[in-house]
């Protein structure tokens, strides 16, 4: 079975490492490839059959797909690949020609192996790159091709709102693929614990990527701009044993973070502090790890405040940080200046896709 796993752009290596370690745990044979056919935000996993022994000692098949959906912290979707291919020049093709190629390709696939004719289905589509067709065109064309193929076996049912089976059709640059989306309509990064919706919250998958980059070893940990608590909550859910602090300036967001933590069942694992990160040393004498997504210009109103805020914060951080910090922001110049002025060394930099932007991420010591 070939699985197309989706995640944020820029964290494919961390998602692959997670998938490898999850698959090793269940002793299945596998091969994992980052960015298959050069597509960003995707990981391919070729997986053999997996088994477990039940309480009566019988050998049972284990669903790798369910296992990944339930256990992964970095993936967005788990899609069983039906087929994929590269369509040279599809970006320049006239709409009818491009849709004709996609329609013919899908019509040739044995989709009947993946859906019972009695089950309702829908096609969800995604498109990225330069094309003369839209994602709606793709969904319609693919839906029609699947419907006509299934008609050979009975009376197919389409249900766009509550389908039993979701086909996912993606055209990214010249690469097209069709699969069965086993995750459903709500991406895995939308955590069920989120009852307070912060306007600038971080995706839970990216929060976990930042935690992976920080490699916290059980020492004390703080998110000094914790908003609705995504990073501390995800860390606590990983069973982290060290002290975790969530610092936030605004009462409303801190209350939201507490509500989220309660809903996640980790309220008692986190210390919530109402306070100003530019006075960090008033709240903590020393801390081993600091991980945060910093306020960006767009999100806190006046962009001109950012350089001053970052410089005051990093000067405070320099007084308390013992081991490592990981920070994500759009404000490259302001953060690099503030880190440098305060004697931090950048150990690693990468860009991560978040909310349509590529955002700068730094590991500092
Ligand atoms: C980008 S958001 C963090 C979102 C958070 N990671 C989440 O997932 O909900 C930045 C947060 O920093 C807070 N903030 C702004 N200035 C602050 C300061 N001086 N001290 C502490 N928090 C501050 C904002 O209220 C906002 O909640």
Q: TL;DR?
A:
The chain has 365 residues and is α/β, with parallel strands linked by helices.
Number of domains: 2
* Mean pLDDT figure: 96
| Ions, cofactors and other bound molecules | S-adenosylmethionine
The name of the CATH topology of the largest domain is VC0802-like
CATH class of the largest domain equals Alpha Beta
| General shape | globular
Q: Uncertain runs with pLDDT below 50, 5 residues or more?
A: none
How many beta-strand segments? 17
Side by side, the strands of the main sheet go 2-3-1-6-10-9-7-8
**Span between termini:** 42 Å
Oligomer: single chain
Structural overview:
- The model has no long low-confidence stretch (mean pLDDT about 95).
- This protein has helices at about 10-25, 65-70, 95-105, 135-150, 205-215, 230-235, 250-265, 305-320, 330-340, and strands at about 1-5, 30-35, 40-45, 50-55, 60, 75-85, 120-130, 155-160, 165-170, 175-180, 220-225, 245-250, 270-275, 285-295, 320-330, 345-355, 355-365.
- The protein has two domains: about 1-180, VC0802-like; about 205-365, Rossmann fold.
- With about 375 residues, it is of the alpha/beta class.
- The structure holds S-adenosylmethionine.
- S-adenosylmethionine binds near residues 202, 228, 230, 276 and 295.
């Amino acid at each position: 079975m070939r699985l197309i796993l989706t995640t944020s752009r820029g964290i494919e290596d961390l998602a692959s490492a997670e998938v490898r370690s999850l698959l090793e745990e269940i002793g299945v044979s596998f091969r994992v490839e980052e960015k298959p056919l050069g597509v960003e935000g995707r990981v391919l996993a070729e997986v053999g059959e997996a088994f477990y022994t039940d309480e009566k000692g019988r050998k049972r098949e284990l669903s790798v797909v369910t296992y990944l959906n339930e256990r992964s912290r970095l993936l967005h979707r788990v899609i069983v690949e039906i087929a994929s291919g590269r369509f040279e020049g599809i970006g320049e093709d006239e709409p009818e020609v491009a849709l004709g190629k996609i329609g013919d390709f899908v019509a040739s696939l044995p989709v009947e192996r993946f859906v019972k004719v009695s089950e309702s289905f829908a096609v969800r589509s995604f498109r990225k790159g330069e094309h003369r067709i839209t994602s709606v065109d793709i969904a319609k064309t693919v839906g029609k091709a699947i419907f006509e193929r299934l008609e050979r076996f009975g009376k197919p049912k389409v249900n766009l709102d509550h389908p039993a089976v979701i086909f996912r059709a993606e055209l990214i640059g010249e690469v097209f693929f069709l699969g069965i989306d086993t995750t459903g309509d709500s991406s895995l990064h939308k955590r069920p614990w989120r009852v307070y919706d912060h306007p600038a919250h971080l995706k839970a998958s990216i929060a976990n990527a930042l935690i992976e980059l920080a490699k916290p070893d059980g020492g004390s940990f703080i998110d000094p701009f914790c908003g609705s608590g995504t990073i501390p909550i995800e860390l606590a859910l990983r069973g982290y044993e060290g002290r975790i602090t969530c610092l936030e300036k605004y009462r409303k967001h801190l209350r939201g973070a507490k509500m989220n933590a309660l809903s996640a069942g980790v309220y008692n694992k986190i210390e919530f502090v109402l306070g100003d990160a530019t006075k960090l040393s008033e709240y903590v004498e020393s801390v081993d790890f600091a991980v945060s997504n910093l306020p960006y210009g767009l999100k806190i109103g006046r962009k001109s405040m950012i350089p001053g805020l970052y410089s005051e914060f990093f000067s405070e951080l320099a007084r308390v940080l013992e081991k490592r910090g990981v920070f994500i922001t759009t404000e490259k110049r302001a953060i690099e200046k503030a880190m440098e002025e305060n004697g931090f060394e950048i150990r690693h930099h990468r860009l991560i896709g978040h909310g349509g932007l590529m955002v700068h991420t730094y590991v500092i010591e």
